[in-house]
Amino acid sequence: MGLTCFDVMVSPEVQNTIHPEESVAKAFNIIKRSRARFLPVVDHDGKYVGVFTAPTLLKLILPKAALIGLEHTRVPLSSLGFMSLSEADFNARLEQLKYEKVGDNLSNPDNIPVTAPETPIMEGIFLIHQYKRHVILVDPKTNRFVGTLSANSLLDHVLAQPEETENANSE
């Protein structure tokens, strides 16, 4: 059998995850510390629930008025010039996020590609290309989160092999 998504994934031991009942403030701290763009959301049994993303976090920081009508069109950033946000206001917004639950703020599942770990790598690459984001790997029998596939995990796998070969040959 050829290379699968499982062969080049970021494992759950490396991939940061979060539980749905955790606060958005905790998600913010994980995203800030790890510089992640997303966090798979899993329950206490390791079952996949959804994804919380950095853009969702930014959406929660924006005033609700700034988001009116965004489901149909994108407003140029320059049109928000009348709004301002002081450091105190920003910190107050972050404080409010302590009361928001991650599970109530998941990304739209239609925008998140999910596939089985045994999926051939070419299909995984196609999903990354099609959705322009990571792919979540979930065991279809148990619905347990298995890992993520990303352009970086692919490159790490491909680029690590020649380097390892060079090191072994030079010894």
UniProtKB/TrEMBL annotation:
Taxonomic lineage: Bacteria, Pseudomonadati, Pseudomonadota, Alphaproteobacteria, Rhodobacterales
Residues of the CBS domain: 9-67
SUPFAM superfamilies registered for this protein in UniProt: CBS-domain pair
Protein name, as recorded: CBS domain-containing protein
Signal peptide: none
CDD domains reported in the protein's UniProt record: CBS_pair_SF
UniProt organism field: Aliiruegeria lutimaris
Transmembrane segments: none
InterPro entries: CBS_dom (IPR000644), CBS_dom_sf (IPR046342)
UniProtKB keywords: CBS domain
Name of a matching Pfam family: CBS
